[in-house]
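hey all, quick one before standup. I had two proteins in the batch that finished overnight and I want to keep them in one place so we stop losing track of which output belongs to which input. First protein below, input sequence then structure tokens straight from the run.
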Amino acid sequence: MGFRSLGVLETGMKTIHERSVLTVARSGVGWAVELDGELFGHSADKEIAKAAAHRRALQMQDSGRACQVRVSGEHGFYGSF
């Protein structure tokens, strides 16, 4: 088992691709999206921050990067891509 330079984990005969997680969470007095330590999509409205996360997730998906949107404080995952 080992990591390869392209963000792929090999386990036996399976190949598992890393998935980036975009997290919508409270930030100050509003909401923001966090991805790899970067905050973006700041808004006082949680739904607007969620929309920003989904826009970025779709861009990532279109470029071939596996990702998932998670909303902090809600049960389970809001959406997966």
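OK second protein, same deal, sequence then tokens:
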Amino acid sequence: MLIKFSSEQSADFVMLHVAAEQLLSMMGHGGSTEGSVSGEALNSALSSLTSTIESEPEAPAYDNVDEQDSADDWQEDDVGEEPEPVTVSARAAPLVNMLRKAKEADGYVMWRPE
């Protein structure tokens, strides 16, 4: 399942459910595949997400290697090199940018299953 993030201040983007759920939990909105933040909740969500990322900037995006493999859906090439793990900070970058732009414009960020 995909989760679509939307805001009037940024382009929409989608994430796999596993990645989105992890980031939503860091924002304090875990367990909700549909929702929105605005106003003071937007400030709180951005603060929670960025502080969690800053405490572990190079942490892998998933604790379970099987989740990482299925979420990234990479294809092994002829050489057989292993892909580099995606960090939480890299995975969260589009959402952090969207939250910041929405905060600056006193806007909102919404998410829902796609």
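Flagging for whoever picks this up: The helical segments are 17-27, 39-55, 65-72, 88-104. The two ends are 7 Å apart (CA to CA).
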